Amino acid sequence: xxxxxxxxxxxxxxxxxxxxxxxxxxxxxxxxxxxxxxxxxxxxxxxxxxxxxxxxxxxxxxxxx
Length: 65
What we know:
This protein is mainly α and 65 residues long. The chain has a domain at 22-65. The protein has three helices and two strands; from the N terminus they run E-E-H-H-H. A two-stranded antiparallel sheet has the order 1-2. A hairpin with an 8-residue loop joins strand 1 and strand 2. The longest helix has 16 residues, at 48-63.
């Protein structure tokens, strides 16, 4: 199962357990990547912490197209 990369203009398929394609994942600032990974492995997928971290990443993509 997969979804489309959320970065503007990117249509790459991304495995369900990942946020973005490799290229766009590494465009994110390290602090956002770390926050998302920490939330995923700590509080867990679907937790408030994880949801907030995902929103921060998606906002960054919209603001840095």
